[in-house]
Structure formats: C-alpha cells, structure tokens
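> run fold J domain-containing protein
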Amino acid sequence: MGNPNAFYEVLGIPNNSSSDEIRKAYKALVKKWHPDKHPPSSKPEAEARFKSITQAYEALHVRDFNSSGAGSECGVGESICRRRTPLSPSMTTVPNAAVGSYSGKLPLMEKKLECTLEELFHGCKKTIFFKRDVVVDGVVLTREDAQTIVVKPGWKKGTKITFEGRGNERPGCRPADIVFFISEKDHPHFKRVGDDLVLKVHVPLVNSLTGWTFSFRLIGGEKTTISFRDEIIYPGYEKVIKGQGMPLVGQKGVRGDLRINFHVRFPHRLSDEQRSQIAKILNESS
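> ok
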C-alpha cells in the first residue's frame, strides 16, 4: 500500500487524523483539483493531483479497514471467510458468489441534480458529490466521488446527463454508468410551462377598472414596468410578453414567452352607497 505518511501528506493532514478528518480533507481537495474546473494550461497538473488525492484517500481507507481486524480470520470456518468480500466498516459484506456471477455491466446509477430556475436560465457549472463502490486491491470500498456538470441554458426537468463507467464497480464486471437527471426547484414567482414562464399577479378591482402600473423583475434579473391605461383587466386576463421566457436549447438567442396571468381581487363587501355609485357608472358607460 506504500508509505501511509505519504498519503497523509498528499491530503495535507496529520498522520493521526480520524476517518472523518480524512474524508473532509479529501472532499475539499477533489473539489479544488477536479480537472473540469481547470483551464487547458493547468489541466495536466490538476489531473495528476486529482489522481494522487484519490489514491491516497482509497489507500487510507483500506489501511483503516485492515487495521480494524476485518480482514483477519473470521473464526466461523475458512469456507465462509472465503465467501465474503471485505468492505469499508460502514458497508455490508458482499458474497463473492454474488459478485462473480455477474459478468456483464453493472446496473445504471441515477442521481438527482437540483437546479434553480435562474441556474437553468443562465446556465451554470455544478460540482456534485456522490458515493459509489470502487474496487481497490480486490477490496470493494465505498468512496465519495465528485463530478462537475456544465448545465446549459434552457435545460428542462428530466434532462439526463450520462457519464460512462463512473458508477459502481465490482470485480469481474464492467463499471456502471451514472446518470444525473435535472430536478427543477420551485420558484417563488415564476412557473415554467415548457419554454414559457408564467407569472401570477393579483390586481385590486379598482385598478383593474381605472388603470394600473406595476414593476417586477424578469427571470434574467432585469427590472421592467407595465402600465394599463385603456385596457380593462378582467378575471383570467393574460398579457404575453414575447421572448421573455426560457432559452431554447440549441437555438441561440431564441426564447419562449412570458405569460402574465392577472387575478382580480374583489372586495368582500360593498355599502349600499357604493353599490349605487358603481351601478350608475356602469349604466352611463353602457
């Protein structure tokens, strides 16, 4: 396994660090040195460091496992010991018979990638941490891994991003693929319908009849103002602003629409005098 002190040095931690401290250091370093986060000029260095960090983490986990005595004689018969594959302390052992009987590719792994509506509008880069089984010196361990995903503007809920061979491993099997699928977080103001955005606005009855001006921020962050002077805002009235929805994937500069749905707030009660005044106004305008 090499010199354990060198592995601690790679992770930048003391050689008496606990398992939690090892895991914390590994998580911080793989995020910093993940090759996808570096430009071409520094990518070779990042790849080398990422590899050494991963190897050090795996080696220390195997060392901790062996030092716990789990790899020694189990005391219940040699045949039973041979049928068990040692794993990390937090894992359940896997019979070799079950592992060896599957010679094809392991089942697909699926993980959820949560994105805000703003992230799906602008696009973003997200580093996801996940756990997977890896084979190290014939031992199956659970390792925390990282994957950087470039989210493109306009991606929708359910969009899938596949990384081949980056899932679980088992001896004698091809590594599983891992799929991240987009999950869209609820937005406090906008609702997405296809490539369109829907904004629900409440307007008082008096303003719906006499005119109204209101301001709000578009999904891109720009502030806009809409005024109604000659229009009557009736219940169910919808105003469409072209090209202010979500970007269309693969169509540069093309966006869906923004649909503003107005909900008129009616008063709970009216006095007799108010009723008479409203009736008079309506009769005069008819």
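Residues 202 and 263 are 5 Å apart (CA to CA).
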